[in-house]
Design a protein that fits this description.
The chain has helices spanning 20-26, 65-68, 106-109, 118-126, 172-177, 193-202, 209-240, 276-297, 344-360; strands at 28-31, 37-40, 58-63, 76-80, 86-90, 129-132, 148-149, 155-156, 181-185, 245-249, 267-269, 272-273, 303-306. It is α/β, with parallel strands linked by helices and 362 residues long.
Length: 362
């Protein structure tokens, strides 16, 4: 997403057991059409550390930058300063190679997929076969039902597409994969939350009646758009004779429970940063989005909700070991897309919470 932040989205995940990073590293992988990734999970791994379930299922991960794992491959590491704060230090390349590394087309590399994201961890831990078309910046209309428009010349394929007028052509790979379970990670790009973050961090205030109404209108539209995406999945499943389960998660809260606590990732200096009032207001909008996701899921015949709101508890901004990248990264690399995305530990925490939900989706 263009703007102050390349933003996160809502996560809909199939989940994992503990210690999945090692398992995922062992997974066999290849590529499918459009640069999307195909991975065989633990059943095809070289190690024996995975816990296998009764049957391998076909798992599709639809979503945006949280599902794709944006930010991870830059290698940002949190270094505490011993005084209650710290700094993000880059240990990876300035221009990473993303998944799949053999496909260097701009429309593929721009999706910023990492094997440390939870879809890969989940497939490896559960022994599932993964088709992962998730892409940074995707929304329901821009990237899922429609093509993903990175620029006037770089356009990625739709993750679902549709035979209905006004959308991109159907993604034939998705249909051929015949999914048993579909995860959906969408939301923040749909409501252009990066624009709000920019106003909150850099403006005089983002808590105004005008901005509040604009965001409420976008949230209402997102709820309707998400219902369209779910209807597309149901219709395609019905036509194929197998309607897949859909697992949707809520959005994780990146802020410290105490809105008055400040650090480099909340207060940027020179009068720029977030006030406690702005944090509380943004948290209220995240809670409203979580409810809208639940409302949309209620209209789908085989949907489950995994609540990851507190998945980063104890590891939010302004803690000694944050599991979400902070905006102070921009002190070192202005415009880097990592801020507000989960770190590898954050991805593991999200995946762990939804593991039981996915196993119940049958």
């Amino acid at each position: 997403m263009a703007g102050f932040f390349v933003v996160i989205g809502f996560t809909v995940v199939i989940a994992v057991r503990a210690a999945t990073t090692t398992i995922a590293a062992e997974a066999e992988s290849g590529t499918l059409g459009g640069g999307a990734s195909l991975t065989t999970g633990a059943a095809g791994a070289s190690g024996g550390s995975a816990v296998l379930f009764s049957a391998q299922r076909n798992y599709v991960a639809i979503g945006d930058s949280v599902a794709s794992g944006d930010g991870i491959e830059y290698g940002w590491q949190w270094t505490p300063d011993g005084a209650g704060d710290g700094d993000w230090v880059q240990t990876g390349p300035a221009t990473p190679v993303w998944e799949p590394p053999t496909d260097t087309r701009p429309e593929v590399q721009s999706c910023h997929q990492s094997k440390k994201s939870y879809p890969y961890l989940v497939a490896a831990a559960n022994g599932d076969k993964l088709y992962n078309p998730s892409c940074s910046g995707a929304s329901v209309l821009d990237g899922v039902l429609g093509t993903r428009k990175f620029s006037a010349t770089v356009i990625g394929a739709a993750q679902l597409g549709s035979s209905k007028p006004g959308y991109a052509p159907v993604n034939a790979t998705y249909d051929a994969f015949k999914p048993d379970v579909v995860s959906i990670t969408l939301g923040m790009d749909d409501i252009h939350f990066s624009d709000v973050l920019e106003q909150c961090y850099l403006g005089t205030s983002c808590v105004t009646p005008t901005i509040d109404q604009q965001l409420n209108d976008r949230l209402t539209k997102f709820k309707a758009d998400l219902a369209l995406g779910l209807a597309e999945i149901k219709d395609r499943g019905t036509a194929a004779g197998k309607v897949p389960w859909v697992v949707l998660t809520t959005y994780f809260d990146p802020f410290n429970p105490d809105s008055n606590i400040s650090c480099n990732d909340v207060y940027l200096g020179l009068g720029q940063g977030l006030s406690a009032t702005e944090i509380d207001w943004m948290r209220s909008k995240m809670q409203l989005m979580n409810q809208y996701i639940k409302d949309a899921a209620a209209g789908y015949p085989k949907a489950k909700i995994a609540d990851i709101t507190a998945s980063l508890a104890g590891h939010t901004f302004c803690t000694t070991d944050p599991w979400v990248y902070g905006v102070s990264i921009w002190f070192n690399d202005f415009g880097n897309p990592a801020p507000f995305h989960p770190t590898p530990k954050g991805q593991e925490a999200i995946a762990g919470i939804v593991a039981q939900t996915v196993r119940e989706a049958k």
